[in-house]
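Section 5.1 Outputs to date
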Amino acid sequence: MSFRSTAVVTTEMASRYLQQLCKHFAHKIPAEFTPEQGTITFPFGVCSLTAQGNRLTMTVTTESEADLPRMQDVVASHPERFAFRDKPAINWNDA
């Protein structure tokens, strides 16, 4: 069984933030991306990213329910730093 949560961030720089996030994590863990899509593979789960217009959609998936909040925190903390001027609201919805 897997556990999933999704957050949508509204920003004019959705593609830029997707690429920054993937490049940042690529120094330490596997990350692949295009300007529109990205995947970051953590030891405790996977983050899939999609940029469409002014929307950055981030979906985290884990095998353990206990790892889901950790994934949310790790993934959300970085766009909050990159987008400090936008001050994005990142609200997770569990699926």
